[in-house]
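tool=predict chain=A
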Amino acid sequence: MAPTDEENQPPARPADPTGATPPERPLAAGTVAPAARMPRWLPRAMVLALALIAAFQLGSWAFHQLTALLINILIAFFLALAIEPAVSRMAARGMRRGLATFLVFFGLAVVTAGFITLLGSMLAGQIIKMVEGFPDYLDSLINWINQSFHTELRRVDVQEGLLHSDWLRKYAQNSAAGVLDVSAQVLGGLFRLLTVALFSFYFAADGPRLRRALCSVLPPARQAEVLRAWEIAVDKTGGYLYSRGLMALISGVAHYILLEALGVPYAPVLGVWVGLVSQFIPTIGTYLAGALPMLIAFTVNPWYAVWVLVFVVVYQQFENYMLQPKLTAKTVDIHPAVAFGSVIAGTALLGAVGALIAIPAVATLQAFLGAYVKRYDVTDDPRVLGHRGSRSSSPGVLVRVRRLWAGRPGTEEPS
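tool=predict ok
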């Protein structure tokens, strides 16, 4: 009879009474080991890692897309902090915060529109005067060149050469093509200005409601800290604007004196222009502020434009290294080196916006964190007091000579 499958199988191993797993037999030559199973946690870990990478990529993309909006909101928040004292003072007298905020914005808009209108009319008049007097300027320049270099240039030849030059034709083509780009930039700037004004209006008008909503999700101890930080931010931002306004006044008076001494027309308006633009438009404000007085001075005398340029450069250095650090230290209560470094860091991070809000932000952070820093009495050490001297109690040479001259006892040197 043929053997069955059960008889062909090897005998089973006897069970270990201790319950331990018997040792595996070594595999015979030529056989393949069975594949190990994948751990159960590995698929979940891979899915979680992919989900985290996808979330990071999505968050990074959303942040880059919303960077402009976040910067606008940051500017609006600091603008709301700047007008918060005026709005709160008007609201304390019984006026609604929305109406008070509207009146503050309306006053700022009226002052800005009036200044721009006055400045625009002055600039248009000076441009017309410059265009009408351009032939005389060109004749004087040609006469100077002919006398200096013994040439025989004529205005007609120069005008024809300019009109038929390739440079002028290319410049006209590029200017015509760039009109659309300039228009798009102007429209984008107006939309950004409207966005900042809208958010700042809401922040100022709904300031108490915003603070209440923020404090409602915090415990009482944290609520007091948030409200104190908000109050510090309002004080520091107001102090920063006060320092900027004071520097604008000093700059405007200084440039007015120069322009009045040179006999440049519209000296008061130009002084106000230089003061406001150089202080409240960071990074490029100085160049915009100095370009207009130079243009007006050029219509009077080309050398006057050079004098204005030299004065603007010298005054800017004086303001950056002498005036601004000291005024900032007194009004915002931060060290001049910290103020200077914060402006550089803010410019590197956020450009012109960072330069504008860096000082009040650092001052607020410094004042808020200063309450948590424990300070101790400093020892009376010459190295701390800031002057040289010996730490021993023996009197100095001048003191001993003075005592000997006075004939006091006990002042003789020991033998």
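DSSP finds 17 helices and no strands in the chain. Confidence is low (pLDDT under 50) at residues 410-415.
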